[in-house]
UniProtKB/TrEMBL annotation:
It comes from the Eukaryota. This is Pentacotripeptide-repeat region of PRORP domain-containing protein. Gene3D superfamilies: Tetratricopeptide repeat domain. The keyword Repeat applies. Keywords: Repeat. GO terms for biological process: RNA modification. Coiled coil: none annotated. The keyword Transmembrane helix does not apply.
Length: 199
């Protein structure tokens, strides 16, 4: 059964795919007029749409309308700031998050890394390890490796053996060397680099 929320969510997905922000705003107005109490699911779709289209102002306005944001709500507004390079806002949202997962940490680390704040990315990575985050994902791992190979991040490079062990323990690598050619190449690179100590 198709609900109004699912109906609007489908159209919002089309707006993201076609990069049509004007149409997204029209849909937003229509939702306000026709949906008395929007579900968090629908709010999340609006935040995601505005975030993907680079409009963090509207994304935050929608986020602030949610009485009880769920973990996905927090992650998508965090990702919106991360992708757009609003690092101060990104850190502010991260600090306010009631719970954080691998997606949250990836948004924080990659946001700093992609926008020229390598040292802040390293600090976030170190904080992540201190907090004992084990549900790491492939994207977080790739981001940290990219940082490790950049100038000024020698200490991070030395720590990648520890990070790889956490990544391996999280179950993200299935079987020897991962499940894809890229992961296997990464796996053997790390093993060669540490003389096999991580396995």
């Amino acid at each position: 059964m198709t609900t109004p929320s699912n109906h609007y969510a489908s159209f919002l997905r089309l707006c993201r795919e076609t990069r049509n922000q004007a149409q997204a705003k029209k849909l937003h107005c229509l939702i306000i007029k026709t949906v008395a109490n929007p579900e968090t699911f629908l709010y999340n779709n609006l935040i995601n749409t505005y975030g993907k289209l680079g409009n963090t102002t509207y994304a935050r306005l929608v986020f602030d309308e949610i009485a009880q944001p769920n973990p996905f709500s927090w992650n998508i507004i965090l990702s919106a700031y991360s992708d757009s390079g609003f690092l101060g806002k990104m850190q502010e949202v991260f600090n306010l998050m009631p719970t954080r997962d691998g997606v949250s940490w990836n948004s924080l680390i990659s946001g700093y890394a992609r926008h020229g704040s390598a040292m802040e990315a390293v600090e976030a990575y170190n904080l992540m390890l201190r907090e004992g985050v084990f549900n790491l994902n492939r994207i977080t791992f790739s981001t940290v490796l990219s940082l490790a190979s950049s100038q000024g991040c020698i200490d991070l490079g030395r720590q990648r053996q520890k990070f790889f062990q956490l990544y391996k323990n999280s179950g993200a690598l299935e079987g020897a060397g991962g499940s894809s050619p890229g992961e296997r190449q990464l796996f053997f690179f790390l093993v060669d680099d540490s003389a096999g100590a991580v396995v």
